[in-house]
Amino acid sequence: GVRAVVATFHRITERIQLHREIERAEHRFKSFIDSAHDWISMKDQTGRYIIVNPVCAEAFHLNPRDCLTVS
């Protein structure tokens, strides 16, 4: 019984650490995209924008969030 509890606790701790690492990586990626001076955008497989940085959106007089509804 005790081993199972320790193993479960360990797996949860690893998941939390992994989740935090992913969040930090996402934050670094977003910071890079948002601070770039070049146009940066990405579309998904259906052709919808999933990432548009401020410089790219500004070129079309849009807010980056508004671009995410455009395909």
Describe this structure in a few short sentences.
This protein is mainly alpha-helical and 71 residues long. The chain is built from three helices and two strands. The chain has a two-stranded antiparallel ribbon with strand order 1-2.
Give a verbal description of the structure:
- This protein has 71 residues and is mostly helical.
- It is 62% helix and 10% strand.
- It has three helices and two strands, in the order αββαα.
- The chain has a two-stranded antiparallel ribbon with strand order 1-2.
- The chain starts with a helix and ends with a helix.
Question: From N to C, what is the helix and strand string?
Answer: HEEHH
> Whole-number average pLDDT?
87
Tell me the number of strands: 2
Q: Strand pairing plus helix content: what structural class?
A: mainly alpha
Q: What is the terminal separation in angstroms?
A: 54 Å
Number of helices: 3
